[in-house]
Amino acid sequence: MKKVIVFLSLVSVLTVGIFMIGKAQSDSAAAQQTTQTVSQSTLSAPVAAEKSFHYVLKEKFIEGGAGWMTPILLCLIGGLALAIERIVYLNLSTVNTQKLLNKVETAIQTKGIAAAKDVCKNTKGPVASVFYQGLDRMSEGLEIVEKSIISYGGVVMARLENNLSWITLFIALAPMLGFLGTVVGMVQAFADIEAAGDISPTIVAGGMKVALLTTVFGLITAIILQILYNYLLTKVESLVNSMEDATISFMDILIKNKNVKQ
């Protein structure tokens, strides 16, 4: 199920990204063909309507250069795909622990451990799976049950944090690619100045503008992914705290009902 979610998220985000690149290139070509006609017809006319944000974004993407902007876009796409997968997974892992504890306790008192295991088996989320591991070891004693819960709890925590390291990689990589594109663009601008033999403001401003666009897009990508990453960390911490509190109450239930039939 998790692999399907990752695949669908990645495909959808990749499709949108590729469509944006193609659409931006076609719009840029169309704009270049109509620039002279529009400029001639609007010399004495009022100022045309402002460009939409979507159009300006595509225009700046083309100006920044596909060679540097595409890797940054891929970082954004990959980070968003992983973040969406984690958000879906963590939301599906969220469960009302108090309600689950009540169901487990009622099942133990009325029908025994086997019924409580069925309740946990039919409940989604890491808390229910931890409870199931503990109930499955009841015949070996409460000490073994506690050790089993602690061990499996560590496994569950690792699953909750899965793919977060890749998101941090994209957060660090996007602005680094942007800075690298800026440095290369500045080198190219100085090369143009040297070739022209004159420090023309037009040459300097044009080269610096294109160079700085990569940094802007890299920082925007890092900001978006950083916000999502912090949300995911908060969600994971909330689930872990809830799981730890629930396991304490779960052990209390098992202690009170340690003589119940298996």
Write structural notes for this entry.
- The chain is mainly α.
- It has one domain (1-40, 50-262).
- Helices cover 85% and strands 0% of the residues.
- The protein has helices at residues 2-41, 53-64, 66-93, 97-110, 113-121, 126-136, 142-160, 164-196, 201-256.
- Helix 3 packs parallel to helix 9 (201-256), helix 6 (126-136) packs parallel to helix 9 (201-256) and helix 7 runs antiparallel to helix 9.
Count of distinct structural domains: 1
Mean pLDDT equals: 77
Number of helices: 9
Tally of DSSP β-strands: 0
Shape: rod-shaped
Oligomer: single chain
Q: What does the radius of gyration come to? A: 28 Å
Largest sheet: none
Helix content: over 70%
N-to-C terminal Cα separation, in Å?
A: 32 Å
Structural class from helices and strands? mainly alpha
Spell out the helices and strands N to C. Answer: HHHHHHHHH
In percent, how much strand structure appears in the residues? under 5%
Low-confidence blocks of residues: 1-8, 10-49
Question: Outline of this structure?
Answer:
With 262 residues, this protein is an all-alpha fold. It has helices at 2-41, 53-64, 66-93, 97-110, 113-121, 126-136, 142-160, 164-196, 201-256.
Fill in the keyword field for this structure:
9 helices, disordered N terminus, 262 residues, mainly alpha
